[in-house]
C-alpha cells in the first residue's frame, strides 16, 4: 500500500493564507467593483430626480403665479358684472402686474370680446382676439368642461406676429367667480418680462450651492436669464415651462457634470479597493515570507543540533578509543604512542573550538556577550593564533603563508574576540580546501582602516550565497560546500565580532578557485600608535 505524503507546514500555511485572506479579498473586490456600477446608477437616478424636483417646483411656481393672476382677473370681472367699473378694476390689476400687457374677457363661445390695456380698452385688437377664440372651439369646449367641474384650467395660446419678433402669449382660463356667467378670460403676457420679473428671483433662490439653472427661448444657445454663466450644453436636464411653451428651463450640477462626478467617485472607490487588495496581498506575502523564514530557521536549527551531535560524537569517540588503548598499554611502538597523543590533542582542540563557538553564540543570543576593548596590535594577534594553531594546520597538510604589513596603526579591539574571529576564518579555510592546501593570512592598511585577510584555494562560494553565509545556521545547499560538515556558526560569529568593533567583513570568492575573507577595522586616534 502506498502511503500518502504528509503536507508540509509551509504548504499548509500557504493554502491557509489563500483561503482566509486572498480568496475573500478577491471575492469582495469583484463584488464591490460590480456593485459600484449599480451604486453609481442609483446615485445618478437620485440626482436626476432631485433636479426634476427643482424643475417641477419652478414650473409649479410659475403656474401658481399665473393662477393667482387669473383669480384676480376673475374677481375683477365678477365685480364689474355686479355694477362695478371694469376699466378701473382691470387698470388697477395691470398696474400691479408688469408682465401682463392686457386682459381679455369674453363669453363662453368666445364672442363679445373685451380687451383691456393699461390705457383702457384696446378696441382695435378685439376683433383679432375674437377670431383667435372662434377658431379654437375645441380649446373653448375643454375650458367649459373644466369650468362645470369648478376647476380653472390654464391654456397657453401663442399669438402670431408679422414682424418676426416674439409675439405675445395669451393664457386662457374659465371664469369661476360668477356662477351665473360661464365666460372665458385671458391674460396677454410679455414672455420676456415674465421670465425676468417672475422667474428670475425664484431661479436665483433655487440655484443654491449644488445646481446651475438657466432659461432659454426656443433653440437659442444663449440663455434669456441665468444667475451664473451657463451654456445649453452644460445643463444636464431641460424642461418646457408650462405657462411659456416656447421657453425651456435647464438645470445642471455646479462645477463638474454628473457623469464626471460619478466617474470620479467610481475611480476613487476602485483605486481604494485596489489599494486595500494590494495591502492584503503584500501582508499575505510578508506573512508567508516570515513563516517560510521561521520554518527555514527551524530546519537549520534541527540541522545544527544534528551536526553538533555528530561533531561532538566523532572526536569524543576517537579520544576515548585512543585513550583506552594508551591506558591499557597495548602500544609498544613509541611513534604510534606519539601519533595517538597527537590525535587526542587535535581532537581535543577541535572540541574546544566547537564548544567555544556554541558558548559564544549562546551568549550573543542571550545578549550577554561582553567585549574587553583595548589597544591591540593586529600582527601580534595573527602571530599568536597561528602559533597556537600551527599543530592543527600541519596535521591537515597546511603551511600558512604570512604577509604582515609593518608599522600598522593600533586598533581599539578585544584581542580575544579578534583571535576567535581569525580562528573561525582559518578553520573555514581548512575545512573547505581540497587538493591544494593553501592558506594565506595578510594584514595591511587601507585608508582609515586596518584589515586582516584570510585567503584559500578551496572550493569557493557561488555569488548568490555571499550575503547569506554570514547568517546564523546558514549553510550552502549545493556543490562541495554542502558536503563538508559544519555548524553554520563560524561566519555568523565573525560577522557579530566585526560589527561589535565597528568594522566590516567582505567576501571575494569564485567557485572552484577559492575564497578571500577580509575583516576591516577603524584605526585608533587617527593611527598614532603602531604595531611592528
Task: Give an overview in words.
The chain has helices spanning 9-81, 86-96, 126-134, 137-148, 191-207, 258-327, 334-366, 378-395, 415-431, 479-483, 490-500, and strands spanning 100-107, 114-117, 120-121, 155-158, 169-174, 183-189, 211-217, 237-240, 247-253, 374-376, 401-403, 408-409, 411-413, 439-446, 449-456, 504-510, 514-522, 530-531. The protein has 532 residues and is α+β, with helices and mostly antiparallel strands. The protein has three domains: 8-255, no CATH class; 258-350, Helix Hairpins, CATH 1.10.287; 371-531, 2-Layer Sandwich (Heat Shock Protein 90). A hairpin with an 8-residue loop joins strand 5 and strand 6. The longest helix is centred in the first third of the chain and has 73 residues, at 9-81.
Give the structure's gist in a few sentences:
By secondary structure, this protein is α+β, with helices and mostly antiparallel strands.
Counted up, domains total 3
**Overall form:** rod-shaped
| Quaternary state of the chains | single chain
Major beta sheet, strand line-up: 3-2-1-6-5-4
Alpha-beta classification: alpha+beta
Q: Element order, helices and strands?
A: HHEEEHHEEEHEEEHHEHEEEHEEHHEEE
What portion of residues is helical? 40-55%
Overall number of strands: 18
Largest sheet: 6 strands, antiparallel
Distance between the termini: 74 Å
Mean pLDDT: 79
Amino acid at each position: 500500500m502506498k502511503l500518502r505524503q504528509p503536507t508540509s507546514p509551509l504548504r499548509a500555511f500557504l493554502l491557509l493564507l489563500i483561503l482566509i485572506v486572498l480568496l475573500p479579498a478577491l471575492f469582495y473586490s469583484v463584488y464591490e467593483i460590480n456593485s459600484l456600477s449599480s451604486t453609481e446608477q442609483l446615485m445618478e437616478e437620485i440626482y436626476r430626480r432631485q433636479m426634476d424636483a427643482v424643475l417641477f417646483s419652478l414650473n409649479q411656481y410659475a403656474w401658481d403665479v399665473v393662477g393667482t393672476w387669473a383669480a384676480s382677473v376673475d374677481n375683477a370681472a365678477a365685480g364689474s358684472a355686479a355694477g362695478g367699473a371694469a376699466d378701473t378694476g382691470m387698470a388697477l390689476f395691470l398696474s400691479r402686474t408688469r408682465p401682463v400687457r392686457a386682459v381679455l374677457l369674453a363669453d363662453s363661445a368666445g364672442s363679445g370680446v373685451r380687451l383691456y390695456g393699461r390705457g383702457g380698452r384696446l378696441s382695435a385688437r378685439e376683433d383679432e382676439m375674437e377670431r383667435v377664440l372662434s377658431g379654437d372651439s375645441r380649446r373653448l369646449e375643454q375650458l367649459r368642461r373644466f369650468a362645470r367641474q369648478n376647476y380653472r384650467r390654464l391654456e397657453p395660446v401663442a399669438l402670431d406676429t408679422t414682424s418676426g419678433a416674439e409675439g405675445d402669449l395669451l393664457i386662457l382660463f374659465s371664469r369661476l367667480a360668477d356662477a351665473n356667467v360661464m365666460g372665458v378670460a385671458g391674460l396677454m403676457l410679455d414672455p420676456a418680462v415674465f421670465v425676468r420679473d417672475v422667474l428670475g428671483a425664484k431661479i436665483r433662490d433655487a440655484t443654491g450651492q449644488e445646481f446651475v439653472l438657466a432659461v432659454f427661448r426656443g433653440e437659442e444657445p444663449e440663455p434669456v436669464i441665468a444667475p451664473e454663466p451657463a451654456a445649453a450644453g452644460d445643463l444636464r436636464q431641460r424642461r418646457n415651462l408650462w405657462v411659456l411653451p416656447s421657453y425651456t428651463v435647464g438645470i445642471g450640477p455646479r462645477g463638474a457634470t454628473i457623469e464626471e462626478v460619478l466617474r470620479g467617485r467610481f475611480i476613487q472607490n476602485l483605486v481604494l479597493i485596489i489599494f486595500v487588495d494590494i495591502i492584503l496581498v503584500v501582508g499575505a506575502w510578508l506573512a508567508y515570507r516570515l513563516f517560510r523564514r521561521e520554518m527555514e530557521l527551524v530546519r537549520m536549527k534541527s540541522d545544527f543540533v544534528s551536526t553538533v551531535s555528530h561533531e561532538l560524537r566523532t572526536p569524543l569517540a576517537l579520544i576515548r578509543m585512543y585513550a583506552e588503548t594508551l591506558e591499557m598499554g597495548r602500544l609498544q611502538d613509541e611513534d604510534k604512542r606519539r601519533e595517538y597523543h597527537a590525535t587526542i590533542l587535535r581532537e581535543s582542540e577541535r572540541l574546544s573550538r566547537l564548544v567555544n563557538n556554541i558558548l559564544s553564540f549562546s551568549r550573543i543570543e542571550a545578549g550577554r556577550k561582553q567585549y574587553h576593548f583595548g589597544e591591540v596590535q593586529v600582527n601580534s594577534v595573527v602571530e599568536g593564533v597561528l602559533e597556537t594553531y600551527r599543530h592543527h594546520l600541519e596535521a591537515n597538510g597546511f603551511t600558512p603563508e604570512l604577509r604582515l604589513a609593518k608599522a600598522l596603526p593600533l586598533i581599539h579591539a578585544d584581542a580575544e574576540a579578534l583571535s576567535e574571529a581569525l580562528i573561525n576564518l582559518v578553520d573555514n579555510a581548512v575545512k573547505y580546501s581540497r587538493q591544494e592546501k593553501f592558506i594565506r593570512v595578510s594584514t595591511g592598511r587601507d585608508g582609515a582602516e586596518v584589515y586582516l585577510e584570510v585567503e584559500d584555494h578551496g572550493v569557493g562560494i557561488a555569488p548568490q550565497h555571499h550575503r547569506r553565509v554570514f547568517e546564523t545556521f546558514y549553510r550552502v545547499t549545493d556543490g562541495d560546500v554542502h558536503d563538508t560538515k559544519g555548524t553554520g556558526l563560524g561566519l555568523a560569529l565573525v560577522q557579530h565580532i566585526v560589527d561589535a568593533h565597528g568594522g566590516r567583513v567582505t567576501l571575494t570568492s569564485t567557485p572552484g578557485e577559492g575564497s578571500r575573507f577580509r575583516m576591516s577595522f577603524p584605526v585608533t586616534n587617527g593611527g598614532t600608535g603602531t604595531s611592528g
